[in-house]
Amino acid sequence: MPQSNTCVKTAEGQVAMATIPYPDQPGPGQAIIRTTLSTICGSDIHVVDDLPVPAGVPMGHEAVGVVEAVGAGVTAFKPGDRVISSCLLCCGTCGNCSEGQHSVCSSFNSPGNLLFGAQGEFFLVSGAQTTMAKIPDNLEDEQVLFASDIMSTGFAAIERAEIKAGDSVAVFAQGPVGLCATAGARALGAGLIIAVESIPERQAMAKRMGADIVVEPGEAVARIMALTGNRGVDIAVEALGHQVTFENACAVARLGGTVSSVGVYGRFPVLNLPTSGSFIHRKLVTTLCPIGTERLRRLMGMISGGKVDLRPLLTHSMKISETPAAYDMFRKRDGGVLKIALRP
Ligand SMILES: [Zn+2]
Ligand SMILES: [Zn+2]
User: Fold this and answer.
1) Rounded to the nearest whole angstrom, what is the distance from the C-alpha of residue 43 to the centroid of ligand 1?
2) For residue range 234-253, what is the model confidence (pLDDT) as tens digits?
3) DSSP states of 38-50
4) For residue 50, how far is its CA from the centre of ligand 1 (angstroms)?
5) Considering the domain 3-149+290-343, what is its CATH architecture?
6) Which CATH number does 154-286 carry?
7) What dihedral do alpha carbons 209, 210, 214, 217 form, nearest 10°?
8) In the chain, fewer beta carbons within 10 Å around the N or the C end?
9) CATH 3.40.50.720 region(s) of the chain?
10) Which ligand is nearest to the CA of 148?
């Protein structure tokens, strides 16, 4: 069997490089991809630290590459195609997929339907026919990489809040997903965009991604209320996964507005809905990254059309073989790190 040098979870809180086998010939519906660009996501940290995922699983779910081989039934792709895979797998035919809810496809247990193994030289994609998309020739790997996960998630935080042209949007926390929500708010027609962030590099990046104003977390509620004439914002996005940012997002969503939660509350078994004052006549939406061929095609269309450029988020570059060290850097947020490009 061929082998791949891949980052694997070795114990709770730990990863290491390991040589793992992958099939010569992929099974029905599967494709083997040779990685050309990968990265680490905040949810990788949850998989390693907090989630009940067993040791031994190969890590990584955000990557682009070249098709090495396809299994039976995979007719949309052939060896040599440049492709991007969504971070979650979908079959295209189960009940949830038939309803257009591909991110909650019920056909895989990898565990869950998360893609695993993209932080390796090669990775296997199940449901390849509907999970992957070809990358247009005019787009570089670096331009499209985030369509697999954080761009789709960040944009969906705005889309699921049913943005209207000119809406005011506050985005709490400008980590990678929050920055994508900020970029999504601009691309999708927000009027005023207020970013909440304390780290200077992230404040600067928020402006670059489209924030009109950046406020410090400690004064966010008061500043946002003042900036909106005490009305509150139409859409308040929570992109950190902490109780306090969730409460603050609730506090600044106007009457009739929407709280859109995309943070992963991995360490918190309970999330309290604040009722001080009142929490009436708001909508609360949560979102799992929208996925699949058609979603990828639309997002790459926005990139190709020059509506969004997320390449500045790739602040660092390392080799795939250095992925465990990259986890340390990503975890500690060393040196203004946002996203680390991992290359063969
Ligand atoms: Zn992710
Ligand atoms: Zn499905």
Assistant:
1) 5
2) 999 999 999 999 999 999 99
3) E---HHHHHHHHT
4) 14
5) Alpha-Beta Complex (3.90)
6) 3.40.50.720
7) -60
8) N
9) 154-286
10) 1
